[in-house]
Amino acid sequence: MRFPSAPLLAGLLLALAPAGGGADDLQASPGSAAGTGRHCFGEARPRWLGAVTLIGEANPIGMEVQLQAGRCLPLITTPGALFDYTNFQYGLAAYLAPVYAMPGAFVSIAPLSVIELRAEAEYVGQWPVGLDGAGYFPLSSAEAPWDTLPAAAATTAQGYTANFTANLQAEIPLAARWSLLALDSASWQFWQLGDAPAYYNTRYDLPMARRDWILKNTALVLVNHDLSERLKLRGGVTLDQSWVTGSGYRQDVVAALLTGVIARWPGPASETQPFLRLGGYTRHENRQGQLQLFVGVGTTFDLSPAPAR
Questions:
Q1: I need a labelling partner for 261 at 20 to 30 A (CA). Which of 135, 165, 207, 228 fits?
Q2: For the segment 205-227, what is each residue's pLDDT rounded down to a tens digit?
Q3: Per-domain residue ranges for the chain?
């Protein structure tokens, strides 16, 4: 049994709201006519924000908890749909799983409502848990076979990763209470882990050299329906692609996605988004033609004190 954890699908889903979008509503998107000044979680004022996301995965089996806490500052306050969600954010982030811990920090800027640029860096610590595919697995090279990863071969490792991401996002009104959401996220990641010439990357289910780069691109197209002022239902398709630059290894997943947005829950200044993704591997060394399942839930909430009245 393999035990890698899910990639950053939940973060991409939450990014479908225009940068810094809030819990009240997402109607004033880049495709809307009027500006609303929702730079930081629905308001045009600095705010401390937090986020917690839990993701589970089948084929391979895995789970991950994502934590984030930071400061959001409005960037361009000129009225207009192109600037309503511009902001600058910085803070701490952590990605935790039964086989690794990745604490670090991030900084991001949304110069336009449709663009977000993010940089982050994390320490990586990895360890075995007595299961096949769980832990750090040394390989003789990034091209070496990795179809069997017995628990006895797993060990511990330390390293770091740096991630640079560009998100392009938009919402296009279709009819009353209906809209089309689109996001393309390109991530350029550097990894250095362990002492072996290469290893199996547990987080992304692929082989990498000890010092290597991976390019990931995820595209989402969803139809959004506003069920009420607080509830939204979204469904569509995703394409997730990975490319390891050192070896040229590539991996693709095409999937259907169903998600929802629950505003002002569990608290008045929060937003919760459950999601389900079911798809298949169209390109993979060991799983081509097999199904893959993601389930999860993410909550974003305001950590700021209430403004003085």
A1: 165
A2: 999 999 999 999 999 999 999 99
A3: 9-302
CATH 2.40.128 fits 9-302, yes or no: yes
d(CA 258, CA 52): 19
pLDDT band at 306 (very low <50, low <70, confident <90, very high): low
**pLDDT tens digit string along 83-135?**
999 999 999 999 999 999 999 999 999 999 999 999 999 999 999 999 999 99
